[in-house]
Amino acid sequence: MIKQNIMSRLFFMFILTMSSIVLYAQGSVNQLDEDGKRHGVWEKYFDKTDQLRYEGKFDHGKEIDTFNFYTLKNKKSVLSAVKVFNPNNNLASVKFISSRGKLISEGTMNGRLYTGKWTYYQNKSAGVLSAETYNDQGKLDGEKIVYYPNGKTAEIVNYKDGKFEGISKWYSERGTLIKDLLYSNDELHGLAKYYDADGIILAEGEYQHGRKHKIWNYYEGGKLKESKDHTRRSKNPKKQ
């Protein structure tokens, strides 16, 4: 009888201990520090569901370590992004993931801004779709390269502060140059050449602030067919 009472007490203490652990664990999630800032492990769920929207850890209001973000698919949480935060600044290494679990893109974010090099991947393969660079303001800056599914280069364009600037080249899927252009402040400006899929010249001339300017030559079968003068003229004949 005494032994049975001892066992009953031990069992009761075990249940009490486990309940305390569970309550403590539940209470340790979604906590605020003394300044009202998020601290420790946080979990958020989609409204009126038991499906996670995000999970991660805060250090007195700052995200640290790894955060997982989810979308709802068929009423179930599906991983859509992983962010690994730098403890010393606002930068995070980010990966965006499709609902099928395929990597869409990866790079660095500063808060909500893209920064540095970003790589995007083909929809139906692990091949690279494009590689581009963003400045500290989250705008495209420098060279951007776009690839065909076969791995050949489709475009090489240049940006400055989010606008087209400098040389831009477009290629056919066979690797043949089909456009050779110059941009200035997001407008076509300078010499331009267009080619057919076999690399035979179709037209060449000059742009000025987005409009054709001066003499343009047009070709057929690689031979000059006609030339047109696109020089702008004043609408007021007295000023010509």
TrEMBL record:
The keyword Glycosyltransferase does not apply. Transmembrane segments: none annotated. Coiled coil: none annotated. Keywords: Signal. It holds the Pfam family MORN_2. It comes from the Bacteria. Residues 1-25 form the signal peptide. The keyword Coiled coil does not apply. This is Toxin-antitoxin system YwqK family antitoxin.
